[in-house]
Amino acid sequence: MGKIAAIIGGGVIGGGWAARFALNGWQVRVFDPDPEAKRKIGEVMENARLSLPGLGNVALPQEGSVTFHDTIAEAVAGADWVQESVPERLDLKQKVYGELMAHVPEGAVIGSSTSGYKPSELQAGLARPGQVVVAHPFNPVYLLPLVELVTTEANEAERVDRAKEILTGLGMYPLHLRREIDAHVADRFLEAVWREALWLVRDGIATTEEIDNAIRYGFGLRWAQMGLFETYRVAGGEAGMRHFIAQFGPCLKWPWTKLMDVPDLTDDLIDAIADQSDAQSGAHSIRELERIRDANLVGILRALSRENWGAGALQKAHDDRIEPASGLVRHMDELSDLSQPVLSARRAVPLEWLDYNGHMTESRYLEAFADATDRVMQMIGCDADYIAAGQSYFTAETHIRHIDESKAGEVIDIRTQVIEGKGKKMRLFHEMRAGGRLVATGEHFLLHVNLETRRSEPPTPQVEAALVKLAEAHAALPAPEALGRGIGAAR
Amino acid sequence: MGKIAAIIGGGVIGGGWAARFALNGWQVRVFDPDPEAKRKIGEVMENARLSLPGLGNVALPQEGSVTFHDTIAEAVAGADWVQESVPERLDLKQKVYGELMAHVPEGAVIGSSTSGYKPSELQAGLARPGQVVVAHPFNPVYLLPLVELVTTEANEAERVDRAKEILTGLGMYPLHLRREIDAHVADRFLEAVWREALWLVRDGIATTEEIDNAIRYGFGLRWAQMGLFETYRVAGGEAGMRHFIAQFGPCLKWPWTKLMDVPDLTDDLIDAIADQSDAQSGAHSIRELERIRDANLVGILRALSRENWGAGALQKAHDDRIEPASGLVRHMDELSDLSQPVLSARRAVPLEWLDYNGHMTESRYLEAFADATDRVMQMIGCDADYIAAGQSYFTAETHIRHIDESKAGEVIDIRTQVIEGKGKKMRLFHEMRAGGRLVATGEHFLLHVNLETRRSEPPTPQVEAALVKLAEAHAALPAPEALGRGIGAAR
């Protein structure tokens, strides 16, 4: 039987906690007088089940139960962790804590999701103030790892350690503040940016969308990986943080924002920042940090491209603009010579496609071949609209041969021969070349399917006619060397 | 012959511009009196060549030349775009602009990389002020798409349009400010956060590393995809932006930050924000935005995991913690029964592994099989240390059969039979199951290689002995149904 978490208050934040605990194998008991609580938490759980388990590469423990209870007393019985996420009103929270003191087992940690109150304000007047800590999470709680852990001298050291251990066990990063402060750390930044954004909208400098774009096409992509100081360490170059602060320090005094009160850049403060930055990032040279930053950016941007969102959607639009000049076409009618294998990809090897052996990793060859197959499908009329209307091709079988290596940034071409194309069947043979060298081949057998029934069926007459035309035009080509071969036969 | 860009000032920013122009097919001419300029730009180009071409899925045009010139006059001759990135001193910039006026073709756009000055300050007193715009990029210029385009009434409409067209053609997003303002938009946010961070370090609340973690494990991951307002729109839920502002507006007056001057939340301001947010994001329901956000987060976090960085490194550490409970082992000596196929993966299908057909996409089957192969390698002693010492296995050939579909969040097991294992050769047969259903098989032929010579050679005696032991233990298992089969033979 797993550990027990009691969730007091089941809104977006409480529901996120419920999902994170349950999907990590905890039994979850919810108390929330809202008659909609069950539905709301169910919706959060549904999102979380799709996204959290596949975040890592190892299966999570068996999902724990989520039950709903009419009283706080019943919800917290036997609990190892109690998480309070009731609305941000101190009087209301204090009333809840009074009741918790009467029922929560003495060994349990009580965490508050408060974004504004200090733990001392929550602990004031309680019988066992040492049980209560601030554990402030970020939405969506089931995916974002940050949780601000704020404690006071009333909290026993062992309880603080247990809190850290439990939060870490949920896949979270407990950021233990050195001392309590209004709004903790992260929300102070959010507040500073929010306030500046309100000025920009009010003064008509930029719209909400333009402001969001200023973030997600620029520094947001840096902050997702390195935060503020490490980003500036890289920007400062080999001269280091002291140089960066000296160079950009004066800007703080310029009229760049509405709000001008700044700390004095004393030698002590500059030393503290430079020393802390060395301790944090000094293990990497600036050149290494630049390489790491670029690899992360490519990974983040390509992840966003897969969802056609944000900076990734910009990249896709750019791809569309440069495609005609690359020699790629979208329909077979645009091909000048139907009798030759079709150019189905011309692209550079992305940095994120490398593996620990320093070359393109095997699954990315199949990603490139699969994209090439998609283009052949598009060329015969099985395009996004056709698929949206309910039919597609599924790959049934694949045979890949790795003949040579390929490196990041190198341009690869794929040329495709249609081996068979009739009725439900399509069989393609891809050859991938880099600078003329043959690096890999891919043989693919696909079946045309109905996306409703998930069963194979013939394509529309238009698509079939196009495929047959291409297959017949390729029939005179010599059979590729490895065609139809199995791995056993190759030895 | 491509278009010509003149780069005036070749530091980190000028070098980034040079790389972006050249890799998009422009001829680049650099003027920078720094004797190190050639080396510095060469280093930026080297990073850019690895990362920029593979950002998208279509090859960029042929790279343009980068040449270095001793005078501004020579560098700007025939230029279509001139980008000024000299140090942030107004007197210096004005001197440069004076010289540019004498030599730059009248049709060219002159962009300034200034982060602080307004275009009117740069245009003052020039013969052709309409040629000069602010085009403020973000580091690394060759990867981040944001460029703030700031103009004045002196700029002709056609020149502004051409500037947008050229920047868009470089894969950038020109954010055209509605009017000029000190520090434009993005740097005002950066400044607000930087100032608050200085307070937090000075007051000993958090270190530079803790502050970076507060960003990159939390809101940084949200901002990379949605920015500020859209993130809050989702947080506000179905009640919308007006509700969100009403609920969190009062916090602005609380003592959350050192700096307290805030705009009044008048009805006009609330209406403006809510209406702009509707125009920006209203095409998606909150539920849709939540799904999009989660898919983006999974993609970003998994991209960071591949680099073992930031929130992705946290996820890998969590995987390591939960691995023992999953039934997976790291060395064959830990296996209870050597005679049965080895459990080589137990994981959930990540959200980012789905395709437009709504199921796990083909290349991700190979990603899962390749990870399973890595675990078998680890089990026989070919682990990270062994690879770092200079030897590894490369996959030479793969045969995949897709038997059933698999969905996001579903747990898949892979069990692996060693078909052949002796000398340089390793042949594995993976079976992937989801809830007991066989969904795919993968047959893989690998060769042991020397990572220095990139040629095949036998493994160390220890690794070979372990592989032989496992192969012999599996020799009594029946041959898998599809073993050795080619695609042709399967028909």
Structure description:
The structure is a homodimer of 491-residue chains. The first copy, chain A, has 491 residues and is α/β, with parallel strands linked by helices. Chain A has three domains: 4-176, NAD(P)-binding Rossmann-like Domain (Rossmann fold, 3-Layer(aba) Sandwich); 186-291; 327-490, Thiol Ester Dehydrase, Chain A. Chain A is 43% helix and 19% strand. Chain A is built from 17 helices and 14 strands. Chain A has helices at 12-23, 37-51, 72-76, 90-103, 119-123, 157-169, 186-202, 208-226, 229-236, 240-248, 267-281, 286-306, 310-326, 362-379, 384-388, 461-474, 487-490; strands at residues 4-8, 27-31, 66-69, 81-84, 109-112, 132-137, 146-150, 173-176, 342-348, 391-402, 411-422, 425-434, 437-450, 455-456. In chain A, helix 8 (208-226) packs across helix 12, helix 10 crosses helix 11 (267-281) and helix 12 (286-306) packs across helix 13. The longest helix of chain A has 21 residues, at 286-306. Chain A is globular.
